[in-house]
Amino acid sequence: MSMTETGREVYISGVAEAPLGEVRDHSELSMIALAAREALAEAGLRLSDVDGLFVNYMGEEGSVQVGEYLGIQPSYADSSDLGGAAFVAFLGHASAALQTGRCKVALVVYASRQRTRASRRLNHWNDKAVSPQFEQPFGLPAPLGQFGLLAARHQYEYGTTSEQLASVAVAARQWARLNPKAWSRDPLTVEDVLASRMICEPLHRLDCCLVTDGGGAIVLTTADRARDAARVPIHVAGTGESHRQWHIPQLPGLSSSPGAAAAETALHRAGVTPADIDVFEPYDASTISVLLALEDVGFCSRGEAGRFVEAGNLGPAGSLPSMTSGGGLSYCHPGALGLLLVVEAVRQLRGEAGPRQVPDARIGLVHGIGGLFSTAATAVLVRD
């Protein structure tokens, strides 16, 4: 179903970041409250206007706990477990709820203090899942081991080099140096990435995302209410989501990823092609994640992403501005990055990104992934 077929188009009317980096003076719930109030102020709304609540990936703090803390009794709530892709998928879920009258104002929120709590474990396996019999016994560290396997496969199939992977981290850092909120802002070269400690071959430490605290909020509503927003509302033109497997051996091949299915659906619903995209916000959990996203969305043919990034196309002077906040590699990665990708895309399309602003950005694409490269969600956002 196209986002315009119902006649009730949906807009993002407010966005905000929660405190970022290392957060010691707030709980996750108070971080959410700060971000929600700021996002609602942009939308010209109040907490009492919210009747749709979308929360995921917060451990003990689900939609019921968040609703209680914020004083919201929603008529529609969603906590679908799609990992870091959930918050991009929620744009589609909220749009469907708004278009069918299940709610009138949707609030998507997230916060994590994984850095401050030291709660992130490298070798984390879900004992309730089907036994990872081809992974865990051999010492594969989750989740970076899965991305290491994907990178090794991409190198084997297409001749991708470690230098090309490192070029992704360099591009993210170039953007981060323009963002005062970014965690890592020092100059970075390909040589620096290759000299950093090997984590899971062929991925070095600087091929892997940050571990920080952070979060944010997004407000969505229908066109009639979005007209009252204090900032330019951004149209949710098309969304898609997919999941295929949990364990990486069950992925038939790189071209069969859930990201390819999610992106195809979102582009079709929005009526655009990759050539129409002005700014791209991929989920850079690792450098290989970005190469796969470029190919899944269709910016590059299979096997061409390495050469594309090596040519500098993702950076501030490139043909496809990507990771414009600095991404998970240099800006912030609070356990789940998807919500902050949407925040950055909205600010770029409003023209509010300051020194890192992409000139004349009108159409943005956000591409989230989750789990062990298990889930994906894509959204096309448009400034009318």
TrEMBL record:
Coiled-coil ranges (or none): none
SUPFAM superfamilies: Thiolase-like
Domain of life of the native organism: Bacteria
Cross-referenced CDD domains: SCP-x_thiolase
Chain ranges of the Thiolase C-terminal domain: 240-382
Transmembrane intervals: none
Matching Gene3D superfamilies: 3.40.47.10
Identification of the protein by name: Thiolase
